[in-house]
Amino acid sequence: MKKHLLNVASNIEIARNIFEMKLTGPGVGTMTTPGQFLHVSVGNHSSKLLRRPLSICDVDLDRKEVTLLYRAQGEGTKQLSHKTMGEVVDVLGPLGNGFELAENDPNRKALLIGGGIGVPPLYYLGKHLKSKGIEVTFILGYQSIEDSFYIEKFNEIGETIVTTVDGSLGIKGFVTDAMMDVMKDEPVIYSVGPAIMLKAVEERAGGLRGYLSLEERMGCGIGACFACVCPTDTRESGYVKICSDGPVFKMGEVVL
Amino acid sequence: MSRLHVSLPGLNMKNPILPASGCFGFGKEYAKWYDLSVLGGITIKAATLEGRFGNPTPRVAETESGMLNAIGLQNPGVQKILENEIPVLEPFNIPILANIAGSTEEEYIEVTRQISSSPQVSAVELNISCPNVKEGGIQFGTHYKSAADLTRKVKAVSEKPVYVKLSPNISNIVEMAQAVEEAGADGLSMINTLVGMKLDWRTGHPILANKTGGLSGPAIKPVAIRMIYEVSQKISLPIIGMGGVSTAEDVLEMMSAGASAVAVGTANFVNPYVCPEIIEQLPKLLDEIGVENISEMTGRSTKQWKTPLSSR
Predict the structure, then answer these.
(1) ipTM metric
(2) Does Iron-sulfur show up as a keyword for this record (chain A) (predicted)?
């Protein structure tokens, strides 16, 4: 983990307030583990100080290019959305612990479940799993068709089931409404999204093996400030730090 | 001896820079980024007698040129800090300032007794100013008599010099500083965070689960400078200055106001390398203003300008 100054290759709106930013530079070569994140400075002359934790969506090692998808919601990410080609972005990373790949799972199947802006890291993960010969199915949940993104790209990796809250695309409802059919093959489950969704996924998954990637407001991103803690019954300390112990945890490891 | 060397009670520092408590974990987190031996010292996260989980999340919120935090003194308790955290810093051979907190006088005294007996701890920082827990010491830090009584009792058991960390959330910080000086403090740390709040304008709800939090970052630097300036003229204790410092220029400004050493807090979150970068830049700035030893900077504001510029 290091500080890198990366160049903006592109930064475009791909859905309502959802931006795809591609950054290039030699530091990209270290960003090889799905599920890790970058801590991104939103501007050099900004009154916004804190970095934004953004999941790694994809990495092209040949082009030394990392792709980040983010929602321009708050002032900081709106500033980030104004970055144009050639501008420099200051990032720390890769940070955190990524997904454990279920290479030795006897069923060789994986179910990847993402909600909203939790979807992006599943893309890089899906590519890795597929390269290991694991059959990948995605369930992606969005608010509505206007908020949906990357569905065709996910489809290139594996079967992709879409849910929308308003029913404007795919199955009307939440990601958990689409889980039961896919779980009959007992896949390893990987899920990213808000805590309420992860909790529902964990309950629905029964005893299946799985991994959850948590989201929380962070301060330092490296485990020093104790801002992003989550309770756990499985460690003596009684808590984990999402930024440095996670963001990925085994299902059942943390109290959601 | 290096031109950056400063000497304070218990703290023999090769430069005046140390990370502020709560902004550097227990040090090991930043040891992954650079060699901590470059620092003048290190202030570790607050220790309480028993482990504390702290406040619910969200615990941080960003504000204009600053941030609010309401961590709530999360720590594993003094015994585990002594067993698991402090030994990790031994290879770096730098002074350790141990921040201590508690809910009662007895807790402060016991934590001080235990942590100050560690040969690795150089001094203790009495945290009577954490605004984020109901019983985190602020009840001591806002009443002169309580602060003085606690300082006296902690001094009586401490094997190391005691720095009292003052809260800016009081009406007269000079009187508070005088009270703890008379009670036997060896030095002051100032300032802690200012109590603040941020709301979501859409819902009206506070962003922090604790509702209020401590404001830090560049936004509070002028408050820190003013308070250090006022206090340093009325007392003779050395001051570790802190509050919004993020550049080498900020360090020299704070020393000019009266600080003998300077702690860097929130800036560590923005740039993990900020402390070594500041240390590297200090000699160049001293050259620029023709100052040989950095300790000459302390209190320069009052040494140079006996009368305000406006009346000259």
Answers:
(1) 0.91
(2) yes
